[in-house]
UniProtKB/TrEMBL annotation:
Family: Belongs to the small heat shock protein (HSP20) family.
CDD domains linked to this entry: ACD_sHsps-like
Protein name stated in the entry: ATP-independent chaperone, alpha-crystallin/Hsp20 family
SUPFAM superfamilies xrefs: HSP20-like chaperones
Tree of life domain: Bacteria
Organism: Vecturithrix granuli
Domain SHSP intervals: 37-152
């Protein structure tokens, strides 16, 4: 028996927005690679985001991050992660042959495509990966209002 799934036109907009954000991040990274680590003003860590029946889950590569600068904020459907990867002070006086890792400040924003329980979002950092768990809203507080009908 075929399954009918209700189409939501805003789903395509969320996908388009995320794709565009990734493209901008990639272009930004290309230009940032031409700068030295100390003059780089921003970079974007790579991330995976997926959805289960109960939650949205993000894994973000953040090896070498200064944990005191790491901050995660959630507001109105947007999850923002920002922080800093400091440049290795020992390398400043050394003869450098190659620098491929990005240093300095970063900020990434992810649009979450469905309501989540903001108060129960959790994050953990393990072996260079920041893991963020965003539980889906199980009972949306949708107020039902009965609309009076005027008969003439």
């Amino acid at each position: 028996m075929p399954v009918i799934i209700k189409w939501n036109p805003t789903d395509d907009l969320f996908v388009l927005n995320e794709t565009f954000s990734q493209m901008l991040d990639q272009v930004s990274n290309i230009f940032q690679q031409r700068k030295t680590p100390e003059t780089s003003s921003a970079w974007a860590p790579i991330a995976d985001m997926y959805e289960t029946d109960n939650a949205f889950i993000l894994h973000i590569e953040l090896a070498g991050i200064d944990k005191e600068t790491l901050e995660i904020l959630f507001q109105e459907g947007a999850l923002m992660i920002r922080g800093k990867r400091p440049f290795n002070a020992h390398m400043q006086s050394a003869k450098i042959h190659r620098i491929e890792r990005m240093y300095g400040l970063f900020q990434r924003t992810f649009w979450i495509p469905a309501p989540v329980e903001a108060q129960t979002i959790t994050a953990s950092y393990d072996r260079g990966i920041l893991n963020i768990y965003l539980p889906k809203l199980t009972h949306p507080d949708v107020e039902q209002v009965k609309i009076p009908i005027t008969f003439k």
